[in-house]
Amino acid sequence: MENNISIEKSKTTKIQDVDFNNLSFGSVYTDHMLVCDYKNGAWETPKIIPYGNLSLDPASKIFHYGQSIFEGMKAYKDEAGKIFLFRPTDNHARLNKSAERLAMPSIPESHFMEGLETLLKLEKDWIPTTAGSSLYIRPFMFATGVGFHASPADAYKLIIACAPSGAYFSGKVKVLIEQTYSRAANGGVGYAKAGGNYAGQFYPTKLAAEKGYQQIIWTDDNTHEYIEEAGAMNVFVRINDTLMTAPTNDRILDGITRKSILKIAEDEGIQTEVRKIKVSELVDAANNGSLKEIFGAGTAAVISPLAGFGFDGKDYDLPELEAPFSARLKKRITDIQYNRAEDKFGWRHEVK
Amino acid sequence: MENNISIEKSKTTKIQDVDFNNLSFGSVYTDHMLVCDYKNGAWETPKIIPYGNLSLDPASKIFHYGQSIFEGMKAYKDEAGKIFLFRPTDNHARLNKSAERLAMPSIPESHFMEGLETLLKLEKDWIPTTAGSSLYIRPFMFATGVGFHASPADAYKLIIACAPSGAYFSGKVKVLIEQTYSRAANGGVGYAKAGGNYAGQFYPTKLAAEKGYQQIIWTDDNTHEYIEEAGAMNVFVRINDTLMTAPTNDRILDGITRKSILKIAEDEGIQTEVRKIKVSELVDAANNGSLKEIFGAGTAAVISPLAGFGFDGKDYDLPELEAPFSARLKKRITDIQYNRAEDKFGWRHEVK
């Protein structure tokens, strides 16, 4: 361990209080967390301490100027008890991409990976093994430096916390294609996993929920003619037998599940297209029966199939298919994640 | 006092450590702060406690999903020692407007105003009286409710902290008219004082600083043809003797200084126009000599005159005027704020 990560063990454990057969998403935390402070222009050595409250000055910039980024990852345990991560260095790279856009310091890969692996080995009993469950991992970084001046902070904290979790969504959801609100600007921070991107979605989602929709499909902020993301996920559309998704840009997150799905789909011989997708195409395809599937893709839910969508005051149902792409692709990706299948793309990362 | 605000006095004071003749902006905090918690669907009674660290669960949504809003206000002390606020109920109303857009609870005016006034009376010795200085007041609200699920928190904290402050900016600044990055989307949260709006500005501002500009003039995210804000301020342009500013919309903050300046300018007999302003107009006016002034307007700086701007690789200087509108308007507004002139618009609010 190059970084000599110190471990302060918790005197007690909460693990016996957890019902591993009835886990919700991200609401129970393990006994420890990794903490790494950035001060005076450098990252200190990461340390593992008991999970517990943080003490912060009210003038810390996290409370004022939104310098806050995060990642979502999962740890999986196979039948032999081996622990795996899925493309973890991609999460690290994206965390640094988000950090750059929010004028926050980048974190060295060794701090991140060694810290994460040390934490996971300590918390290995917390990784659930019931179907669909995993240890959700939340790396996040925020501004601890103080001051009311609207400028980047001079101190930051990286934390990695873990939460044994069941599936993120249950059942098929009905979404509203948004025509008024937007989640991202051209030249903005939409591609970053920045806290502010999520806060801005809550109110429009609440309005959609009042109309009977569980989520929103976001469209471009200028014309609202092109679909971009589904809630906090990337969005895939299947018209006839072609699977398509919008290209990443400065408004759309470069999702790790998204790019893995594209790769697996190609491997499955599914025709894929990465291109701008017009709302009017979806409506036309729904009307003529060629629209087969829409699903969201992200770490938390993996793949979240939609039951239908609303647009311009009208609802469109999606067909119930015998063998949807969504189920086939989800099986392929989760079989790799849980070490139930060959890892031909080299995505699995064993923690040992 | 309807709300029976409790006061826990600090055992010590830091006031003797403060050099009131050399105050920077927002970096020294008074002895006390107001704290009000929202739990179980209701605001608790505000309380005043010694300024000090907050203890927060690492899963609090402020660290993950950016539910964070704030206001900027000032308290002024006149020669007789009377304390004044400037249009404080407008700040309260805007805080609630921001809260709605970020799916946060609105705060009752009585909690806000009584809490603020009680705090100011306690901290009255902290209000500086040297020229241009004031007690900067920072009301802010953020999500304390916990969970990694991307949804609004169920608990929040409103805090009002105070910082005796000198002037925000010194000297005239040169700005870059931004053509790549943007601060706000149509249908986004640009009009709210949301933390995330500020974090997104830091990186482009850093890039501009590397080119020799102190600030950015933001343009619309779609065409970059229209100017919207200057840094974290509203922007005013004077062409010949007409003063103009962009109309507020969902991308532009409804600034209290902005609307006060418009009112005072009208009262001064200055021709004003509230309309979209093209970058090309500025360039043409700079070239033909009719561009007289550009200035930012906001609570912290009041009015911040610009020395020039850069656009498309070219720099444009603004003339040095004998009697600029900026100085005249700043004098009018600060004379009202510091109780040095008649308050014909009813903007002053005495704290007694």
The poorly predicted ranges of chain A are none
What fold name stands as the CATH topology of the largest domain in chain A? D-amino Acid Aminotransferase, Chain A, domain 2
Secondary-structure content class of chain A: alpha+beta
Q: What shape does the CA trace of chain A take?
A: globular
End-to-end Cα distance of chain A, whole Å, is 12 Å
Mean pLDDT of chain A: 96
CATH class of the largest domain in chain A: Alpha Beta
Classified in CATH, the superfamily of the largest domain in chain A is D-amino Acid Aminotransferase, subunit A, domain 2
Cα-atom radius of gyration of chain A: 21 Å
What percentage of residues of chain A falls in helices of 4 or more residues? 10-25%
What would CATH call the architecture of the largest domain in chain A? Alpha-Beta Barrel
Number of helices of chain A: 7
User: Sheet with the most strands of chain A?
Assistant: 10 strands, mixed
H-E order of chain A:
EEEEEHEEEHHEEEHEEEEHEEHEEEHE
State the domain count of chain A.
2
Care to count the β-strands of chain A?
A: 21
For the largest interface, the chains and their residue counts are:
A-B, 70 and 69 residues
Oligomerization category of the chains in this entry = homodimer
Strand content of chain A: 25-35%
